[in-house]
Amino acid sequence: MTDARAQLVMDSFLPMVQAGFMVSLPLAMISFVCGILIAIGVALVRISPSDNILHHILLKLTKYYVGIIRGTPLLVQLSIVFYGLPALGIYIDPIPAAIIGFSLNTGAYASETIRSAILSVPKGQWEAGFSIGMTYMQTFRRIIAPQAFRVAVPPLSNDFIGLFKNTSLASVVTVTELFRVAQQYANLSYDFLPVYIEAGVVYWCFCMVLFLIQARIEKRFSRHIAK
């Protein structure tokens, strides 16, 4: 490695790490929380008994939503939110646009995870709640949700790690996150390989920490299940 390349790698390292902590990680966390809220709502609509026309309409809408989001690339979704909506007179700043895109994407995928986790709880648990006078939502909140949450933790943890890596796509909507910082340094020097490799290493380090956190969370929940 030449001295110029070594200096480039050293100069870009700290800004990339700072962008990871200050932008990429918060962006992933906020989008994940919003996505989970969307996913819970979608999952509940899809598993609830269809007993009226409003629920039937919501069921159709959620099916289309999940199908469209899962059937189109995340990059296209972000581009539509940031570059497409202005054609309709809707202008959204880069970070909110990224959060909207990531949240909608996460909500669609996580809804299937949450729906499967809820359906994994034996039907007898629902009947037990109804038998003691609980309403549908009381039964879900007090009996079903805690059990389903334990089942959903491992796949949702993987979803979060995947979302953190996908925040690199926010550079497309001009968010100055980790990868966009790498692009800026690479563009200044026209020496792309070392900077992009370094960006990959920084992402890998972040993900290794997240993997360790995931392992501890899963271990903790496995103990509760064993008890």
TrEMBL record:
Pfam family, one: BPD_transp_1
Residue span(s) of domain ABC transmembrane type-1: 21-214
InterPro entries registered for this protein in UniProt: AA_ABC_transptr_permease_3TM, ArtM/GltK/GlnP/TcyL/YhdX-like, MetI-like, MetI-like_sf
Topological relation to the membrane, as annotated: Multi-pass membrane protein
Alphabetized CDD domains for the sequence: TM_PBP2 (cd06261)
Subcellular localization: Cell inner membrane; Cell membrane
Gene3D superfamilies given in the database record: MetI-like (1.10.3720.10)
Residue ranges of the TM segments: 20-44, 64-85, 193-213
Keyword terms of this UniProt record: Amino-acid transport, Cell membrane, Membrane, Transmembrane, Transmembrane helix, Transport
Single GO cellular component term: ATP-binding cassette (ABC) transporter complex
GO biological process: amino acid transport
GO terms of molecular function: transmembrane transporter activity
Family: Belongs to the binding-protein-dependent transport system permease family. HisMQ subfamily.
Protein name, UniProt field: His/Glu/Gln/Arg/opine family amino ABC transporter, permease, 3-TM region
Species of the source: Simonsiella muelleri ATCC 29453
